[in-house]
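dumping this here before i forget
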Amino acid sequence: MKTMSCKQLGGACDKVFQANSFDEMVAMSKQHGMEMFQTQDEAHLKAIMEVQKLMQNPAAMTEWFEGKKKEFEALPED
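structure:
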């Protein structure tokens, strides 16, 4: 199991996620992002907008996503 924070995953807070795989980590981060969007948390809305800008450029989005995956893979097991 590995641990990453919302900020490490491109978010806006220090909430911690623990997962056995990067896909699982992404799913938890997305769920958290949806919850923050529903509450209209200003800091998270800004972070969501940044990711949406990246999505406009598929190559940049892929590069960003792969970077996060490598960061996850480099983490020590908890």
